[in-house]
User: Fold this.
Amino acid sequence: MEKDARTKLIETATQLFAQKGFNTVSIRELARTAKVNSALISYYFGSKEGLYQEVLEEQFILIAQMLRMFEEIPPASPIESITLYAKNIAVIHQQRPYLTRFIISEIINPTPCCEAVIKKYISRIFRFLHATLEEGIAAGDFKPDLNRDFAIVSLAGIMNFFFIGKPIFLEFTSSSEKIGEEYTAQALDTFLNGILRRKEHE
Amino acid sequence: MEKDARTKLIETATQLFAQKGFNTVSIRELARTAKVNSALISYYFGSKEGLYQEVLEEQFILIAQMLRMFEEIPPASPIESITLYAKNIAVIHQQRPYLTRFIISEIINPTPCCEAVIKKYISRIFRFLHATLEEGIAAGDFKPDLNRDFAIVSLAGIMNFFFIGKPIFLEFTSSSEKIGEEYTAQALDTFLNGILRRKEHE
DNA sequence: GTCTATATTGCGATAGAC
DNA sequence: GTCTATCGCAATATAGAC
Assistant:
């Protein structure tokens, strides 16, 4: 069965925007790659920017789902929260391989309309992690002098950097099927080990 | 004293390319902001891309310096190597606040001519850190089952992510003068703690 | 070394036929 | 819903005066 023009445009745009950036991709290239007429971009999405916004919102569906889940079923402990968060992120990276690229791209070179979308989700994740770390410090799990804001950035960096640089990283090392999951497992371990309160130093 | 057109163009281009990306900045905007005639871009740099390349190469001067220093005066131990590396990176971030942006921007959306520049430096850093981790594992400093490649990505993520997202990060938290150094100090601590071999678990 | 003027190409968007 | 044709504009780059 043949996909309709709208779907083909979204799928093609996701790839091209992620790989080349919003301004580098023209609607002509987009239409050619998707094998549809370029006038259909205006017809379905109003403009090139409208198409981009649709792509961007689609990228965040799984993040929204995860955040909803954490609100409905809060994990038992801070360590469990962070572990579950990391595992979710690993799965999301598999299903939305370009998500981090879009986020970083927007952070570095914000586009007018969509800054609001990105910031909305980032601030929700930020608040969730902040509360989790706060709780963990209060419970004595994490180092008491830990700067929470910094720790959040470190966690974000350690969990996401791999997926930004994955293509270039694979040029320097060997690869495997489940490399993303393997990476996140070690990264989470390093981070948790790094912020854990060491009983023997008390 | 008045700066010459060439210098003004380089300085303006560094800012604009970093903030908006190569394709979003036009030579007209560049010339207007630098208060020089737009034809001078071709005159001095051959093309917009030539100007970009010049900007990019300038960004890596301090990285090259650091790598040369590590070759000439190798640190005494792996832990010292990584600590010194982190401190150097923190200083470089202060003096070249856009460096990480350029690197990440090139990784996400590579431009034709300059991919070679970026990859050259990344691979040199990668090799240095790989050797350092190898040595540290052999010496029993770091966890013996550590995946070296992953650890390098984690270190890069933890050290650099802050500087990509700094503007947006500052919207979520309070700031101070030396925030970059404060961040890198905690991040390095977290990372080293995270990969250290724990004597009490032997 | 710096300017104006312009050649050329490609862009995003739309009108209107089918 | 999809097409062709085209409008208006902005892009990079360059020729040639000063």
Q: What stands out?
A: Chain A has two domains: 5-56, 60-201. The two ends of chain A are 66 Å apart (CA to CA). Chain A has a mean pLDDT of 94.
